[in-house]
Amino acid sequence: MAIITISRGCYSHGKEIAEKTAEILGYECVSREILIEASKFFNVPEKKLLKSIHDAPSVLDRITRGKERYLSYIETALWDHVRKDNVVYHGHAGHLLLKNFTRVLKVRIIAEMEDRVGMLQKEKGFTEEEAVAYIRKDDDERQNWTRYLYRKEVSDAALYDMVIKIGAFTIDDACELIANAARKDTFRLSEEGVQQMNDMAIESRLHGLLADVCNAEIRISKGMVHIQCRPQRIRKFDPIRPSLAHHIDETIREDLTKQVTEIAHSIPGVKEVTCDVDSPYYT
Amino acid sequence: MTPQMILTMIVLVFVIILFVFEWVRVDVVGIMMTVLLPLIGLISAKEAFVGFSSNAVISIIAVIIIGAGLDKTGVMNRVAGPIIRLAGASESRVITLISGTVGVISSMMQNIGAAALFLPATQRISKRMGVPISRILMPMGFCAIIGGTLTLVGASPTILLNDLMVLGGKKLEPFGLFTQTPIGLCLLASAILYFLIFGKFVLPSGAGEDDKGITASLMEEYETLENTAELKVSDDFAGPRRMDQIDIQRKYLVTVVAIHKTRKGDRILIPRSSDTLEAGDNFAVVGKVKNVEEFAKEYGFEIKPGLDVFGESLSRTTAGMAETIVSPRSELIGKTLSELDFKTLYGVNPVALVRGRKVFYAGLTHIPLQMGDTLLLQGPWERFHILDNRPKPRALTFTTPLEGEILRTGKAKLAILWLLVALFQVIFIKIQLSVALMSGALGMIITGVLSVDEAYRAVDWMTVFLLAGLIPLGIAFEKTGTAAFIAQGVLGLMGTPAPIILLAVIGIMTSFFTLVISNVGATVLLVPLCMNMAMMAGGDPRMAALVVGISASNTFVLPTHQVNALVMRPGGYRTVDYMRAGGLMTLIFLAVELTVLYFFYGIQ
After folding, report:
1. Inter-chain contact B112–A244, Cβ cutoff 8 Å?
2. Which chain A positions have a beta carbon within 8 Å of B568's beta carbon?
């Protein structure tokens, strides 16, 4: 009766451990499904989503905040899964996507470099140098990614409930350890926990749906949603009479309020919506 | 390179950074220039403020006052009505007529004003015809932007041109009001054609948002008021019967808000209990759909599918609802509405009365009013504005915003006359643009089309300071020889292209700059530079300036453009729609502009 996220570098046995643990506990094991569902719901190619969650952000990403948008899509799909409870997620950054939710068992799997290199060489027929370069590059990408988006270091043990190094512990040992931990009451979902999870699922879905519409701050408690939209920026191109400008500002503000409220109401589980939108400002 | 040139370049880089990152508003950048440039000695103190007395600034003030005068007298509403009626037959006719009219209107008025004027009516038409609103609004918005290129005073960049066209210390021959009109007309026609042919492929077909406004929100709040419906009294109706005899308010909680007496051709917008209904009359009611249906069934009235006879007089822009509260010490306290003869006194229809948790929809006129009672009123916006302008303390306090404004329709002919006077001077007397336009504006003030205070309030100070502040920067750019220096450098890289190629490069460069920095900023920076380039390449510097001025309106891909922002949600557009439809429009704009220059302006 728990949610487990397994964070790992490439070729660190993470996938194997996740699958085995899920089997021991009889849980669902998800990874790529999340991307497929997010891609279907928000109508974005899966490739773009994968890129957003794997690659380090480009300069363009930093300007357009494209990564944040795709992440909120992925987070939405992830929430929809974990809401069902009894899930092992071993996709990217599960521990960070579900960061505000305490009742998740967050595990990090690490492995010795030689072990990883060996695995990669065996799988892809790389030379040792190539394999080391490949793993380093992948690790760096992920490091930059978390640094940019969450201001966190992947290697920071404080982010996880458990960090297991494969070496002294075998894969089976690791699965056993995780399964035992997951059985603890701490990770069992209470009614409050379910409510909190529902709220978070709504919040992430709303973030995803609003990404194209406005920049909004969302507060949510027991299905009651409050949305504070940042004022819309309008470029001044031609002269406009102040009274007309005021009328147009109000029209734009009202339209935005209506659109945001409608979007929020369209999400299942939302009971009440209040929405504050400031009048647009000119630059 | 002289030290002055280096200083100018530093200032230019600084300005571009400010424009791109928008740390301060564009007009503040303008004000900064009026202070910074004389302080570092690039221009004299006198030159720093020369922008305020420039042709551009005075023209823009005058144009905006003339526009306000036309608005205030409802001239534009009168144009809108027949156009909308004419258009309502097919999708392509709606697009052509509405977009074309908006384009032409915005050649002399603020672009966004024309778009805002037609927005509600367009939403109504699209709903009535079942055409997706997204197919009409973007063409209308784009044509409003293009309309600015029809005349020299249509958009800020072209207004600036005459003040910036100084080359080697000599002022070039200024452009006339209509020098650019052939280009503008072709651009407008090509935009309309583009949407007629490719509209289906580049525009989304999803429905946007309905035109709602404050009245619709109020009607949602009051659950018994669901809809405004128009009914026709059947020919076999035994009448005439007085409204109080029919008594629909008490029986069906439905309020009659307008009657059209077909025989006399009268339109009663504040119906009273003594007014009558007879065979052939049309009338409008507010109430729940179910109640209206029952009521219509009982009397054999026909419910029309939408507002027809009252389409204009009950449209969102003309009439609506407002919520008011009986103020403390109001003269209404303790009296009933019928005792007060409220409808005569106030000229609006009471629709509902809220006291505590109770809402009364019937028998309102017989309830003695108390302080704090909420009255929901319906009527023409103009009446509400008159009530709201009464000296304080008022008997009723408005709690919802009012739409529309008080129109001086009686002065409409005078407003048109003064516009014509201004245009006559421009075309036939060839007097300086600012003088001609200001005389039109002054005429409007003197003949009471609008008061001088209203004229002052109409001025857009942001644009005034932006233009006036950036003109000195243009002067410094040219005067210090920096423009010539950079032009030489650029031409050194490019070689000496044919004039039309050079103009194409200028057009592309301006279109790009106007997206990144503001249109006025792009004009101020590029006009001196491009004129120098044209001169060095043996082309006409005036044409280079014209290309910059017109290309600065090539801003279709930006959802943050004020016109695009206005139609974005009502049209249900997303940023990507502007990228797609606007991207193609940008290319067409450049192609058409250059083609017209090539064939009609003697550029080879």
Report:
1. yes
2. 255
pLDDT (0 to 100) of residue B185: 96
Which segments of B130-238 does DSSP mark as H helices, in order? Answer: 134-147, 156-164, 181-202, 213-221
pTM confidence score: 0.80
Mark which residues 210-269 of A lie under 8 Å from B by CB.
212, 232-245, 247-248, 250-252, 254-256, 258-259
Q: How close is the nearest chain A Cα to the Cα of B148, in Å? A: 9
- A4-54 pLDDT, tens digit per residue, is 888 887 888 888 898 899 899 888 888 877 777 777 777 777 777 777 766
Which pLDDT tens digit goes with each residue over A113-132?
A: 888 888 888 888 888 888 88
Residue of B nearest to A233 (CA): B560
**What is the rounded CA–CA span in Å between residue B192 and residue B198?**
10
Q: How far apart are CA A7 and CA A154, in angstroms?
A: 9
| A234 interaction partners in chain B (CB closer than 8 Å) | 560-562, 565
Taking the Cβ of residue A122 and every Cβ of chain B, the question of whether any pair is shorter than 8 Å is answered with no
- DSSP tag of B580: I
ipTM: 0.80
Residue A11 — left, alpha, or beta (φ > 0 → left; ψ -120 to 50 → alpha)? left
Q: What are phi and psi of B380, to 5 degrees?
A: -70, 140
- Picking from B69, B53, B55, the residue whose alpha carbon sits closest to that of residue B442 is B69
Measure the CA–CA gap between B449 and B74, rounded to whole angstroms: 11
**Predicted confidence (pLDDT) at residue A60 exceeds the cutoff of 70:** no
- Mean pLDDT within A169-196: 86
Q: Is the pLDDT of residue B506 over 70?
A: yes
Q: How far apart are CA B79 and CA B101, in angstroms?
A: 9
Distance CA A214, CA A199 (A): 20
Average pLDDT of every residue of chain A: 83
- Contact (CB, 8 A) for A21 and A57: no
- Name the nearest CA neighbour of A88 among A66, A107, A63: A107
Closest Cβ–Cβ partner in B457, B460, B570 for A240:
B460
Of the candidates A281, A231, A235, A232, the one whose C-alpha atom is nearest the C-alpha of residue B145 is A235
Among B440, B507, B428, B566, smallest CA distance to B141 is for B566
